[in-house]
């Protein structure tokens, strides 16, 4: 899912306008214990803004799956909805 360009960048410090898959980074929202979150725009649907979370340790696939499963089960106005996930 990552372009060749983003594979050489650190997940916690992507500059604005970096393209990751079909998303363009607008700004970093924050960094936590598991990953870094960014506000991104869908390249194929200009104006559609989403949040993208990138793992700080991409090799830890189990932790990533756990985050996706937990967030998918959480139904609350203050919890984001999962639109997709991948590697």
UniProtKB/TrEMBL annotation:
Signal sequence segment: none
Domain of life: Bacteria
Residue numbers binding ATP: 53
Domain Protein kinase: 23-87
Recorded GO MF terms: ATP binding; protein kinase activity
InterPro entries in the cross-refs: Kinase-like_dom_sf, Prot_kinase_dom, Protein_kinase_ATP_BS
Protein name as annotated: Protein kinase domain-containing protein
Lineage: Bacteria, Pseudomonadati, Myxococcota, Myxococcia, Myxococcales
């Amino acid at each position: 899912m990552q372009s060749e360009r983003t594979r050489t960048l650190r997940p916690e410090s992507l500059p604005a306008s970096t393209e990751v898959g079909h998303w363009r980074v607008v700004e970093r929202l924050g960094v936590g214990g598991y990953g870094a979150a960014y506000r991104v725009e869908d390249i194929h649907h200009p104006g559609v803004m989403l949040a993208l979370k990138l793992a700080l340790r991409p090799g830890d696939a189990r932790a990533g799956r756990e985050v996706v499963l937990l967030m998918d089960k959480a139904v609350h106005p203050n919890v984001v909805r999962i639109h997709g996930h991948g590697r």
